[in-house]
From TrEMBL:
This is VWFA domain-containing protein. It comes from Thanatephorus cucumeris (strain AG1-IB / isolate 7/3/14). Pfam families: VWA_3. Residues 6-50, 107-182 form the VWFA domain. It comes from the Eukaryota. Transmembrane segments: none annotated.
Length: 473
């Protein structure tokens, strides 16, 4: 694995006691990263100070398995709080006079290291740690987005403390397929980095590309795919391409595929439209003269009734795909055999008067996507200082989640069936989403002006899990 760590350091004008504490927290976190990587992994470090004439220092990719590289990394980490002068510092990066250093500048230096490497490991990633408010402008951000697309690696950002601006960090991470994490307590920075780097070490599949194709004789059409950012649905509704950057061992991605059914023609296999012709068995019975012509298998009271009571299956679509296996270093262009999705058609039951309930898993996923999208839009309103629309949107979202909980799921029972357990799990997830929305509503109503400092990072973190389209916060 090739890992680049871009870390913001306190500027020279910071409070000495605060700067000393932050240096200690960052040094412990970086020492942990060096000790956690394997002998074949490589690490590059970039440190920067936000502000005018801020200092930038960086290392090339250094192999953790070599003693000389370990010595250089340890020396870089130990000298962060008191670096040598620029003229005698091997890690110092020359910059223009009075240049304003910000997050974009630091990430660009990290991308320089990535784009200039002559060899690379199968897995690459960048972690961005920042505690300062950002001063980058839109042209700088647009150029950075183009470079990250060329580098093709995820950037996982960590905003710690209440003084940082989550907007640029969330935008960079979301555009590169990374994650944004709000570290409220400084001492939790090491644990958050451990979870992120551990997830990168657990990657089992990269560049997964799935293709779903509706079968020719099917009456279904794909209308929409939710839950993933890289889904392209054909205008005919017969094909859809889905791209997933990475999948980790034990990870499950839930996609909601919305289908529409063309009711103008019957489904294949429908018992009401079967061809009524004498079968070979009926002809044999009549020739034998057994005297049971009234009990022919083609009799409406017997034959059609038996067919109506049978369960039929209708094929919907098949899924094929390819991926890259980083462990084996091989690219799989297609699966051994495509996966077929079929829909069971149950016989009509006129005696059953029970209310049909939606599947609990689909209801849960729809509620998750709804809450995440509405939180994202509310945070955009907060960034524009439109607090009234943000509150109105979040209150409406909470009401919608309450209605989903009350009307879309069956009432609880005393049975412990698998269906009941799935329903209870869906209820817990929807209640958690309602709790997140309620926290943001209360914070906006109590202190709108302080929401950006206290709760905006929390909302941006909740949004990052739904993979929405890039939006400037």
């Amino acid at each position: 694995m090739d890992l680049i760590a871009v870390v913001a350091l306190p500027p020279a004008s910071a409070n000495p006691s605060t700067a000393q504490l932050k240096h200690r927290v960052i040094r412990n976190a970086l020492d942990f990263l060096v000790a956690s990587l394997g002998p074949r992994d490589r690490l590059a470090l970039v440190t920067f100070q936000v502000g005018k004439s801020g200092r930038v220092r960086k290392t090339p990719f250094l192999s953790v398995g070599r003693p000389g590289s370990i010595s250089r990394l340890s020396g870089f980490i130990d000298s962060m709080s008191n670096p040598p002068p620029d003229t005698s510092d091997d890690f110092s990066v020359k910059s223009a006079k009075d240049e304003i250093v910000d997050v974009v500048t630091a990430v660009n230096h990290g991308l320089d290291t990535v784009l200039q490497r002559k060899q690379k490991n199968p897995i690459s990633g960048m972690v961005l740690v920042c505690d300062a408010s950002d001063t980058s402008r839109k042209p700088q951000m647009d150029l950075l987005m183009a470079r990250t697309e060329a580098a093709s690696l995820p950037i996982h950002s960590f905003g710690y403390g209440k003084s940082h601006d989550p907007g640029p960090l969330w935008l960079i991470s979301n555009a590169t397929g990374g994650s944004y994490t709000f570290v409220r307590d400084w001492y939790e920075l090491q644990d958050c980095l451990a979870g992120c780097v551990g997830g990168m070490m657990s990657i089992g599949v990269m560049n997964l590309r799935m293709h779903a194709k509706v079968l020719d004789d099917s009456k279904f059409r794909i209308k929409k795919v939710a839950g993933v950012g890289g889904a392209v649905v054909a205008s005919s509704g017969l094909d859809v391409d889905v791209s997933v950057p990475v999948l980790r061992f034990g990870e499950r991605r839930e996609l909601v595929v919305e289908l529409e059914l063309d009711n103008r023609a019957p489904l294949a296999g429908s018992s009401h439209h079967r061809e009524e012709s004498m079968s070979a068995t009926d002809a044999f019975v009549q020739r034998m003269g057994l005297g049971i012509d009234g009990l022919s298998l083609s009799d409406a009271a017997l034959g059609e009734g038996m067919m109506d009571a049978m369960i039929d299956e209708a094929p919907v679509f098949e899924v094929d795909g390819g991926f890259f296996d980083p462990g084996a270093g091989k690219t799989i262009t297609r699966l051994g055999h495509p996966v077929l999705l079929t829909l069971a058609i149950n016989p009509p039951n006129e005696r059953s008067q029970q209310q049909p309930w939606s599947d609990a898993s689909i209801v849960r996923r729809r509620a998750e996507l709804l809450s995440h999208q509405m939180i994202m839009r509310a945070i955009v309103f907060v960034g524009r200082r439109d607090f009234s629309h943000a509150i109105q949107l979040l209150v409406g979202t909470r009401t919608a989640l309450t209605n989903i909980l009350n009307t879309s799921l069956p009432p609880p029972t005393s049975r412990t069936t698998r269906k009941e357990l799935v329903t209870l799990a869906a209820v817990r997830v929807i209640q958690s989403a309602m709790a997140d929305v309620s926290v943001l509503v209360d914070a906006l109503e109590d202190n709108p002006e302080g929401f950006g400092r206290e709760w905006r990072p929390f909302g941006a973190q909740q949004v990052s899990f739904s993979l929405p389209p890039p939006v400037r916060l």
